[in-house]
């Protein structure tokens, strides 16, 4: 049996309705992440939290020491759960995430968090490229509407496209209920 860890990506106040970058479905995604984290804690599965912070205090989002940069209270780390602070989209870039996983002998990562099309995408692809078995819990992730060249892609379509891509080439994509039952 592989050794598993939960990676909680950027579930921060900035993404709530009161934040500067609200996401579609963030409340439901967070509620599912809460259940997954609680299950992991009960079973002794490591939970690693990733928190995005802008490198500059004059950034428009994820401003250091702001309320928006704080991890949501519902999923806040407890005990010795590590918090990996990153300044880039990829949670592995210029952080000790890989070393944290290696120190625990992790072979299998379960990813929850935000945003599906950015930081979740980056950690899923990097994890798979590094040889980790990857599971993404689709209903414990959230994103937002995107616009390019005058075309708006609704969040549900953005999210579905990302999950289809993950399932096609990077790992398993499950609902939180299926994961917890399993």
TrEMBL record:
InterPro entries: Isochorismatase-like_dom, Isochorismatase-like_hydrls, Isochorismatase-like_sf. One of its GO terms (molecular function) is hydrolase activity. Transmembrane segments: none annotated. Keywords: Hydrolase. This is Isochorismatase. Residues 5-147 form the Isochorismatase-like domain. It comes from the Bacteria. Gene3D superfamilies: Isochorismatase-like (3.40.50.850).
